[in-house]
Amino acid sequence: MKKSLLFPLFMTLTISTFAQPTLRQLWQSDSLSLKGPESALFDPTSQSLYVSSMGSGSIVRMDLHGKIMQADWVTGLHSNKGSALYNGLLYTAETTAVAVIDVKKATILKRIPIEGAVMLNDVAVDAKGIIYVSDTRTGKVYRIEVDQPSLFLDNIPGANGILTVNTDVYIVGSTTFLKVNANKEVTRIADGFESGLDGIVMIRENEFLLSNYHGILYFVRSDGTKKTVLDTRNNRIMSNDISYDSSSKTLFVPSFSTNQIIAYEVQ
To answer: CB neighbours of 16 closer than 8 A, spacing ≥ 6?
Structure first.
């Protein structure tokens, strides 16, 4: 009797362990309206996307069907990349500073310079309003509290995507995926990725999608298991700093090389 009960349990655990999401393309934006989109940021409040059009130094507002709402929502930025929203403000990484934008007024309020920065890349804000920003060229992550930057972590080659979940900070380097807890203890979740990791989103508890800017999307669990779920390198479609709408299970993927945003349903 015990043997007959154990077999179905084993099968259930096996299916759970190796099940992975699939992606179904919903739409792709035209290739004329954006210039070098490095990141797409989903905003649940306005139900729109803020796209860092790095090639034009602007942020473009796009609806959730890939249509441009405001081509010049904010201009005058410098090599703007990853962005994050908090309490009516949008923070975006320029080369050596974080620009702070008033969302309602669509104006740049100020810039927070990071001394010694070379190429700031991604931004995340935690529930307390503390800002984290990566510097890919120096392999560092900075923490900004009350407009005062300080070094949070270093020695992360290719430091790029950042995600905050409760008191944890998730970071990707060029080939590795890390978690840092409130005590700054670093856990290496997974490594051995092809060089070029870029963005992170959480799709379910302990389950993530990671982008590689060359054109790869990975599914990764907190136990370190990982699978490739999409590879568009042969079509020269990149996968840069991604964003996710958990309510509709939609993943938004910027392609810097083709000047597009591509949306996928995560199934």
So the answer is: none
Find tokens 């700054």 and name the residue.
184
Q: Which two tokens stand for residue 228?
A: 């490739």
pLDDT of residue 19: 80
Place of tokens 């810039």: 111
- Summarised one tens digit per residue, pLDDT across range 35-89 is 999 999 999 999 999 999 999 999 999 999 999 999 999 999 999 999 999 999 9
Q: What is d(CA 187, CA 194) in angstroms, rounded to the nearest whole number?
A: 20
- The number of residues in the chain equals 267
How is 252-263 classified by DSSP, letter by letter? EEEETTTTEEEE
DSSP code at position 55 = G
Q: What is the mean pLDDT of residues 21-25?
A: 97
- The reported pLDDT for the residue numbered 143 is 98
Q: Residue 201 has which token pair?
A: 């989103």
3-state secondary structure of 187: strand
Task: Check if the beta carbon of residue 93 is closer than 8 Å to that of residue 101.
Answer: no
Residue 11 DSSP SS3: helix
Give the single-character DSSP code of 147.
T
3-state secondary structure at position 119: coil
pLDDT tens digit sequence for 256-267: 999 999 999 999
Q: Which two tokens stand for residue 78?
A: 């410098």
